[in-house]
Hints:
Blueprint: H1 3-15, H2 19-22, H3 24-38, H4 43-52, H5 54-64, H6 75-90, E1 102-106, H7 113-124, E2 132-138, H8 141-149, E3 151-152, H9 163-168, E4 169-172, E5 175-178, H10 180-183, E6 186-190, E7 205-209, H11 219-232, E8 233-240, H12 246-251, E9 255-256, E10 264-266, H13 270-273, H14 332-350, H15 354-367, H16 372-383, H17 388-401, H18 406-418, H19 422-434
Amino acid sequence: MTTASHIEALLKERIGLDASTVGTGMIERAVRERLATSAAPDHHAYWNLLHSHPDELQALIEAVVVPETWFFRHREALMALGRFAAMRVFGDARGHAGEGPLRILSVPCSTGEEPYSIVMALLDAGVPEQRFQVDAIDISARALERARLGHYGSNSFRGGQLDFRDRHFTAAPGGYALKPNVLAKVRLLRGNLLDPALMAAEAPYHFVFCRNLLIYFDPPTQQRSLRALERLSRPDATLFVGPAEASLLTRHGFVSAGVPLAFAFTRRGPREAGAPHAPHATHTPPARHAPHAAWAAAPTPRRPHAPPPAQPPRRAPAAPRPAASAPPQPHAPAADAGADALARISRLADRGDLAAAVSACLAHLDAQPPSAAGYCLLGVLHDATSRPAEAREAYRRALYLDPAHQESLYHMAAILEADGDSAAAARLRQRAQRNQPSRHD
């Protein structure tokens, strides 16, 4: 076994890194960097240095762990968090009372973009500052120090939706500085997810973000990490992972929260895990599964649809019937078939096949009577490709069909917030929080 192989094995033991996931070349470059810095004459001398100076092992870890992150990365997950958290804090229309301060964990947190994005998403969702706290953990002391500064350059702001920057940052030399109220909501801690003592004295978390970490582990280390995440989270917690890690959680018995492109999971199904944070708890009867509540995306061109009617549809000629006759009831099998179709479309989106999901959703809306659930899902899919005009129109149609459709209210509120109309966004969120379950879907 070569010295390079020994170093790879040491990194796997200490931080779980599987060299095959990043390539041996990346580790070798980090070793060469540390060889030059430490003035070790060769790999053998450097191996001895790693064992005699613990600080050098940490320096090697810092060189290997190169952060690649930005604010509101995978925006859909953060928007879903905001809605789930609001439901937990304020309660819901089914009579579930609001909860005390929410605990949210971000691990690994890198240079802070993710935990600070969590804070901004919660504030934008109307969750009061005193009702939540975010803990952020990373193995890199260097990354944590950058996070504590709260000062970020242009590389931390990507994509076209940067409205949050105007609300939560101030201009500073070389970039932007986070406002103090956002900085104050994150507790930055150094730690290792594979350490059995990590946060052992802390209460479990309502929401856990562990995104794009498990993909760097081999299967046994992934299982250890999932056990650690279960230990750190409440039984009814929601766990957010990266897109490439969704199938891993499914294989290990986690259940999708049913939010397209949020890659959110629970340890039990929504009914068992507690309704306040279930993505469609206030609208979908237990026998139906219509996962259509998140901010998401898809690049397929949108086919035009006829606008919703400006006036009530014409009545068919009345047939003689007793005056006390009840109005016709919806055909339950047809309603269930529509919900099943939306569930299939959502599963396409969850697998990342966004083009097929958009096409299927448009075809469904062409073939079936218009529904708020269908248009809301279409809005979700357009939202994920940063097509706000199409998304806005889809949510508008959903709210035309059902003015109390909670998911659409939250989505439209997010769009208005991005447009700078905070007052209108707040009114829509208040409507969503007080609405009774809709009977239109």
